[in-house]
Each structure stands twice: as C-alpha cells, then as structure tokens.
Amino acid sequence: MNAPSSSSTTRAGEPVSISIPASSSPSPLTPVSPAITSTAKLAAQSAGGAAFIDPVDPAKSIRVRGAKEHNLKSVDVDIPRDKLVVMTGLSGSGKSSLAFDTIFAEGQRKYMESLSAYARQFLDQLKKPDVEDIQGLPPTIAIEQRSSGSNPRSTVATSTEIYDYLRLLFARCAKPTCWHPTKTKKDGTVTSRCGLPISATESSQIIDSVLAIAAGQRLMVLAPIIRAQKGFHREVIVDLQKQGWGRVRVNNQIIEIREALKDTSENPLKLGRYEKHTIEAVIDRLAIPESSKANPATDDALTDTRQRLTESVEAALKLSSGTVVISIEQPATTSSSKRPSASTAESTWYDRVYSTRHACTEHPECSLEELSPRLFSFNSPHGACSACSGLGTLMELDEALVVPNEELSFRQGAIAAYNKNQAVRAWFTRSLRKLCRVTGFSYDAPFKSLPPDLRRIALYGTTKEDTAKYTLKLKGAIPELTEWMHSTENPTVKEWLGQFMSSKPCPACNADRLRIEALHVLLSSTHKANLADALSATVVGPESLKRDGSTLNIAELSRLNIVDAANFIEGLKLSTEQRTIAEPILKEINNRLSFLRGVGLEYLSLSRKTATLSGGEAQRIRLATQVGSGLVGACYVLDEPTIGLHQRDNDRLIKTLRHLCDIGNTVLVVEHDEDMIRAADWIIDVGPGPGVHGGRIVAAGPLPTIKRSTSLTGQYLSGSRRIELPEKRRQLDPKRSIVIKGAKHNNLKDVDATFPLAGLVCVTGVSGSGKSTLVNDILLQAALKHFGQRAQPGFHQRITGFKHIDRIIDVDQSPIGRTPRSNPATYTGVFDEIRKVFSDTKESKIRGYKPGRFSFNVSQKSGGGRCEACEGQGLKRIEMHFLPDVYVSCEVCGGSRYNRQTLEVKYKGKSIADVLDMTIEEAVTFFENHPKILRQVLCLHDVGLDYIKLGQPSTQLSGGEAQRVKLASELANGVSLDALSTDSRRIRGETQSESADTRWNDDDADESTQRKKSVLIAKRSSLAAHTLYILDEPTTGLHFEDIRKLVQVMNRLADAGNTLVVIEHNLDVIKCADWIIDLGPEGGANGGTIVAEGTPEQIAANPRSHTGRYLKPLLHGYRHAPRGV
After folding, report:
1. Fold agreement (16-147+622-718, 737-806+1031-1115)
2. Which of 701, 703, 726 is nearest to 716 (CA)?
3. Cα-based distances in Å from 45 to 41, 72, 89, 849
C-alpha cells in the first residue's frame, strides 16, 4: 500500500479520498511477531487505505491546518460552525489532542493574547499548541469530564449559580420571622419559637426594651459605622471627630479619637490592612437606675435617664441609618444568650442590636439589619453558622471507629484509639482498670458483654447519678480523646486520632449551615414540597405550626430535588411589587433548573455536594452553568457528556446540545456513544488506529458518509461489525451468591439484592436510581470491612456469602496520576521489576548499582542515577515573561532523564531510557523471558494499550487510556500468563498446542515438562482465588472496538471462576452479562428499588424496565435500538 501525504486540498463540492498507510513504521527497537492482530493493525486493515471527507463551506467553518499535537500527523480538517459535531475514533487515536489540546487550547490562547499586557501579567501563560494555523475559530469553552474536586462547600446549587440567585430572591422577597425561644426542655433544647413576623421597630420600643433589660446596670449606646471591613479607616474617625464625637469602639476596644489622631500616619488605629475591622461611635455611656415598684412614673431619676437614653438612641439611629448597638455591663458570673463583646476581671459587656427596620414586636432584641444576600451565604461569616463555619458538619470521634471490634476485651485493646503505643495505652487504660475494679466487670471480658450503663460510662464518662451509685468519677474514652485532640499540637497525634473520627451533623445548625436568623426567613408557595428529606431540624416558628411544605427557608428549598424545587419556585406567592422585583431572578433560576432536568439530572438535590458527583454528572452540571450564561457565537468543546447517562435520557441531552447550536454556537463533542454519533450533524472519525498508529482523519461528514467508510467506526455503525452475544451464558449456582438484605442507604428502599458468583453481573438503571449506593457504598465497603480494612458500609440489615470469595479488587474512576513523573510503568509497578533486571546485570554488580540507581525520582545524593540538571524530568522550563513558557529537552541528558553513568548500563543492548521509550507491543517481546514483567505488559496489551509507551507521562493519557492502565494493573495481580488472550500468547511465540490448554501426557513427559506442568497448576490455583472485582463504568472513553476487547478480558476472568460486578450503561456490555440487577424505576426519591433481576433475556421481557426496553432489540440481532423506543 502506498503512503501518500496526510492531507489534501479540495475544491468545494468535491468529495476527497485520502490514502492512509496501514500503520506507522514500527520502532526499530525490536521486531514484532507477524502473528500479532493488534488493534492498530486491525484498524489500518479495516480502513482500507482510503478516507472519505465531505466538503465544508470555508466561510462557515473552523479550518485547522497542520495539527501535530501529541500523535496528530499534520492534520488538516474543516469543522462546520453552528452545528453539532462529534469526534469519534479508537481510544488514543487523537480525538482529545485535536479537540482539547489543539482547538480549545488555541482558542483560549488567542483570547489571552487579546488582553492588555497589564491584564496578562495576572494570568497564567498558555503554551501555543503545535499547529500551523486555525482560521474561523470563535471563543472556545471546554467542559471536560473530570471530578469537581473535594471542596465540601461546593454544591449543585452553588456550582450552577442557582444558590446565588436564591440568596438574592430571599433577600428581596422573603419574610423574616422571630426566632426567640418560647419553649425549652430541661436540657436547653428549644421546642418552640416565637415565629411572629419581624417588622420595623420604633425608637420608643427600643427605649422600653433597654430600660427593662438593663435596669440597675451600666450601658453604652453605640452607632455602628464600619462592619467587618478591611482597611485603616483613618477617614472614618476624622469624619466622626468633625461631627463632634470623641470616642470610638474599634474591635471591642474603646479608643479616644483625639489621642489616636495624634498619629499623623494613615493608620492611626494600628489596624491590619487586610484584616476585617468593626468601628462603632460611642454615643453615650450611662447607668440605668432601678425603677420604683410603687410608682415608676414619679421616679425623676428614671425620667431623666429615659430622656437622655432617647436622645442618645435617636442620635445613634441617625448616624448609622437605623441601627443602634446597646452594650450592657453584666457581672462576669451572669449567664446570657448574647455573645460577649468585651470582658474585664469584674464584668462582661454584652451587645444587643436594634433596628428600626426589622425586629419582632414581642422581642425587639430579635432584630435584623436590612436583608442582604450575604445573610444567606454559608461561605460568609455574616450568614454561616459560627459553630461549623458553614460546613454543616463537625468532625467528631465515632463510637463505631473507637471500638471497631466488640469481640475484644479491654486487655486485648477493644478501645482501638488507645493502641497508638505502649505509653498511650498505659496512660489511658488506668480509668478502664478502675472501672472494672469498682464495678466488678472483668478486664478480660469481651466489650460486647458490658451492661448498657457501664458501656456508656466507659465511652462517655460518669453522670452525677453514676458517681452516687458507683462512687466513681470518670471522663470516659471519647471525652478524653477529644480533649487530647484539641490540646495537642503534635501532627502525628492528630493524624492518629483523625482515623477514629467521622463527619457528624452540626448540633448548632442541625446541618443547615446558616445562622438561626437566616433560617427564619421564609418563602411561601402554592406548591407543597415533599419534606421527607428536606424539613429543617432547626425549630422554626411556634410548636403548634404544622408545616406542610408550602413555606420553606433557603436550607429546606436547597434540599429539594430539581423537579420539586422547580415546582415550588413556579408557585411562589408574591405581591405585584415582589413579582416585578423577582422576575429577572426567577428567569435565571428557571433556566438553570430546566436545563438540569433536560440533561437527566432531575433526581439531584440542590444541596448535593459536587464532590459526590460522578464525572459525567459533574460535566453536565458545568454545562448547565454555561447554558445559563446565554452565550452566543462560542465553540463548546465537550468530553463525553453521555457518561453515566442512561439511554432513556440521551435524547434529552441531545436536544439541549442542539439548542446551543440553534442559538448560534458550535458544539464539538468527543464521544463514543452511538446515540450521540447518529444524532450529530457532522462526524469526524479519527484514526485509523490508536497512538502512533492514529492521528489522521479517516472520515468526515454526516452519518451516511461515515457508514460508507471502511473504518472501524464505520463498520460498527453500518452493522457489518458488532460485539457478538455469548453463545451460551454461564450457569450460575444460586447457592453461591452474595446476598444483601434490607439495604436502606441514601435512596435505597429496603432493597434485597443477590449477586451470583463466578460470573459477570451488571448493575443497571437510570441515573440516580441507586446503583453506586448499592455497589460502592454497601457491597464494596462491606467486603473491605470483611477483609479487615477500615470501612463503613451504608445502612443494611445483613450481608451473606463473603465466605465464597478470597479477595476483592476495586477499579474506580480516580485518575492514575497528575504529574509527568507518573507513567504506566510506575503505576502498574512493572518499573520496579525492570529496575531489578538492570541492577542484576553484570555491569551494575561491578559498579555496585542497586535498583534505586535506575529511578528517575531518586537524587544522586540518595544513590539515584537521575539527571540533576532537570531533576529526572527530561525537560526544562524556559520563562518567556509575557509569552508562554517554553519546555525544551534537557541539554545535559537530552531528555533521557538519567545521567551518563546510569545510561552506560545496558540490558540486551538497551539502556533504562530506551526501555521507557518502548511501546507495550515492543516490551512484550523484549521481556518475554521475565514472567513478572511479562504478566504486567500482557495485561496492558489485552486491554488495548499495546501502542502506549512504558514511560509515557500520565498527563498525556486520555481518560479511557488512564482507566485501562488502572484496570490492567488490577487484573495483573490476579491473572496468570496462561489466562491471557490468544493474541498475547501468539506475541510470545506460543502455538495453540503450547498454550495453557495443552493436554499433558504424564507418562511421556520429561523432567522439564513436569516442572512446567507444576508451574501452570500453581498459576491456575492462584487464578482460582475467587476474586470479586468491582468496576464502575469501565467503558468510559472506550470505542466499540475497545469495548470488545474489554468484554473479552472480563469474560476470561469470569471463566476462571472470578466474579465481576459492573455498574454499566453500555448495552454491549450489558447484553453479555450472565446476570443483571436493574434498579429504578426512576432516579432519586422515585428510584431505589429493584425493578428486575435475571438474565438479559429476562430483563428485556420485563415491561417495567427502561434498560430492558433498550436491550431487547440488541438481543434480537439489531445493531442499534431505535431512538425513542
């Protein structure tokens, strides 16, 4: 086959055929066996050497010329604007390199260049992508498939800006109510509050209240001027002096203005510039006399005091625009519900704030300043609960973690937190020995046999009643450990105690995150919201108030799911004036709520933390934020937005993306989902193979053009190639199953689930139906706990069947590394074995080199052999000031990462740097005589990663590649060489007769053959360890062909007697399962039940199953389920 150029110029209206080489030239490192049928070669053969590209109007297109980023081979491509464009192809073929690293990166860089030099100095400099030219490029916005971080303050509402608009809505239209306690229990728990509307308070009411509560005490009348603002504020006190005021209170300290202004600097108050300060003018200081009980009206002293107080309060109200602070002196021993503002040895001053704008008529001290959005922000000190700083949770010692095993006695270490070391144990167990000695309980008896009252004493200490009964006084384990945690500065101790702590709802705000004042500002609606999970635990209003869901505070509204919140907002009871004010606010809220519903996220609550979202959910949340902005003329670049989305919801997502196009945006989607590909206006197929075998445009045009092409994508779309159904499903033994009973965690509704062993089990259902809760939060955590790890499974009654498995492996979606130092060799651990091979060479032994010598992370001082000029990175950064930083190969090591002496050590003619530059395909042949290394690299080959390099930085791996590296790493720990694919064995030069399926003849076998047989038996024994694999959407980022290889790997593991539990939406995987557990029927509160269990055929026959409806056509031989079935 000829190898012509990678691009061609065309005339408008003429289809273009571009020849593509079958594959790139193999590396000269090592020859590859001709028996290999790798993905790359298969793709090249399928492409047939021709690419069909339909023409695009140059005036209405984005024109990319000479793109060479990563594996792209001088790609030229025209992308129509204002259309839904899908880029597809094998994982690693160059889709993300073209879409994100070239088009988006150049669009972002050009925007940065349009800014002034002054603005650019505050921004990170961006590297120019390796592309000759891009024309017609609009502003670009990337919405990638990545997690939203672990910030506990970030929620669905905050990340979509819905919460910002809700805060504004509550500040402008909600009604504040009084929070004054009216009924309390003996322990101080509030059971009822006033609940009267808060309205403006007259100055006369303020006077009456102050005279009543401050009788016989001294007070100060203050006018708040500055509230929690940064700066030196010299001009403020200068202005107050001009008005005739002589004193100010600055951060609770009284200061004479005249004395302060003797300092002529800009900071006479000696304040921190970047600290927040409060400044109040001292209007008056006076003592309130006791009133005469016989005849208060004739009390001249009280009359004079009232007159003076009235004048002072009115002056303060005028100076501070309606707010006055009354600071009352009380003896230090007097308790008060108000926060002290200052203290002395003899007395404490307590502040009470009054406002002529918002205060309760019955309890004037319950007053508010004018409602503002910051009062409803849990990220602001003005609105956040002071106890938990707006987090809603506190870290506290958990009884279940402090005593993880109740079978142990005190002597055996039942209190696990005491077992840090011998000294700690000896110190803390004194109280336990005393408890046993006084009560007669055996120090050697199991903890579970403790009577309830002694258990409480051991953990939480004695009460007065306990002391009287046992003549014993103990602090208890948890109070002692808590005191230790708060008093120590030792980070080791804090780390040790931290493992026994868990997040508990804040008792002050009951997990509402906000101050009590904010929680008593309410909105009413004609819609009655479902308060099952949303009702605030904070008492709001009088005890007799029966809340029916039609009146909510902002915390309760945030706990509603998207549908319930939208209905509540739609039915708001607003006056004509309020409706006018709220109209633009409600428009923004409704737009965002509508989009969230449109992309299948209606089951999420607004208060859901973004750290708990899947990658696909997080991406669609970010997409909602962008849609809400209403931008026009932009180019959105999306990375697989259908991840985590059930087929039922695909149409709604596609409709939303089409809306973006209709209003004048270009939507460029990197996608493998068949529904999305078929719905696209334009498809760009990148290939023909992955890695070095890809990087070209195989086909471009509408769906019919792609289906006519002979690429792998075209073959799967046309139906000429497919992932076949298994000829026969495994017969699973119902007696060998893991059975979960009574699962009620999150939205699960008392679920009983059976997971048959020794097969492929798929857990399916629409988004939010409870799949991850059942598998990750309950099954996985319970299994980890069973095998001795510290884990806390979700609520359930019991789990049986773990006796049938020997170990568990979790393959989740977390990234494998975020720095160039991480690569497939280091992540899988194969690099450790490779370094041992080099350290065992004759040259290494002569020089005394250990395995650490061949690590690029170990400095020469520590015995490493890395290049110190680049610190083992192979690259050096050159700062270019206003231009992007440039990375060049290290001139000392030439990019090899190692120093000259280390590179002189060779194995089979190759240095350690040469080995890191090998592809997996080449490494298989190179290390064929090293079983430990071979097992790892063959697993990488079997999951379709034969084209990546051993030392390829993890930052250059696509999402699909990174997850398969992790999968291969986990699989290699439980797979023997004889369990690997036929292709892998053929790479090693084995024929079918030499495979693990060889029928051995013991009578004729020689000693060498017998030894080989013994090794294979041992390997089979290891493989038959009955491992439970948990995989969460392993098809993320995979092409049809990649999925075929993944299914083969999973089937080989299942054939060896292992169990795979897979959370999946991909129908090609689901149809190959032996057993399906389908959750639903909907998401969120409408899900959490098992709709159907059984084989794929049984699921497809169930009319209640959404999964079954889409699965049925595939079981009958159709390639694709018709849209809208």
Report:
1. yes
2. 703
3. 6, 19, 15, 46
